[in-house]
Design a protein that fits this description.
This protein is α/β, with parallel strands linked by helices and 192 residues long. The protein has helices at residues 14-25, 43-50, 66-79, 96-101, 122-129, 164-188; strands at 3-9, 30-37, 55-57, 84-87, 106-110, 133-140, 150-157.
């Protein structure tokens, strides 16, 4: 049975594209049926439209609170018969409305080896800390910030001459490879 996925993203959409491409090329029994984005001008929106994937733009400032915005998102997820949610560069903390609507079925991709360097600046924080190794983590989302159960990790070496940009390239390459592998495994194991 094909799993119906929603991807939440806020930025350029490279992970969105990599996921969509891997699903097709590797014949993962899944389909991205909805992109949820919180910025109308984000490049990921154009990428989704080019791939003919429906898009829901949610301007959180247009709602009285997070619960109201997430209630709309949850309604759309249910209407699209979404089985699981994959965060891919989504720069908002998921609230209780979505967590209760999709318990243990929301995944996040984080650009560091959690529990080290949680939050929105994982790459910058790892570089600033002077570590010799960082990486990427796929984890279940809970009510905390990057505190959910870790599913998989992949290490990425930090080179002496790395900049944020050069390290980010290798981090993104690891993300693009690891996320589809984890998705396939979770589907195969009946977790999703």
């Amino acid at each position: 049975m094909t799993k119906r996925l929603a991807v939440f993203a806020s930025g350029t959409g490279t992970n969105f594209v990599a996921l969509n491409q891997a699903i097709k090329e590797r014949q993962i029994p899944a389909e991205i049926v909805l992109l949820v984005c919180d910025h109308e001008q984000a490049p990921v929106v154009q990428r989704a439209r080019a791939a003919r994937i429906p898009t829901l733009i949610v301007d959180f400032h247009a709602y009285p609170n997070k619960v109201a915005a997430e209630t709309l998102i949850l309604r759309e997820l249910k209407a699209s018969q979404v089985d699981a949610v994959l965060l891919a560069g989504y720069m908002r903390i998921v609230g209780s409305t979505l967590l209760q609507g999709y318990p243990h079925r929301i995944l996040n991709l984080h650009p560091a080896l959690l529990p080290k360097f949680p939050g929105r600046h994982g790459i910058e924080d790892a570089l600033a800390a002077g570590v010799h190794e960082t990486g990427v983590t796929v984890h279940f989302v809970d009510a905390g910030v990057d505190t959910g159960e870790i599913i998989a990790q992949r290490a990425v070496p930090v080179k002496a001459d790395d900049t944020v940009a050069s390290l980010a390239i290798r981090i993104h390459d690891a993300e693009h490879d690891l996320y589809p592998i984890v998705l396939q495994r979770l589907i195969d194991d009946g977790v999703l």
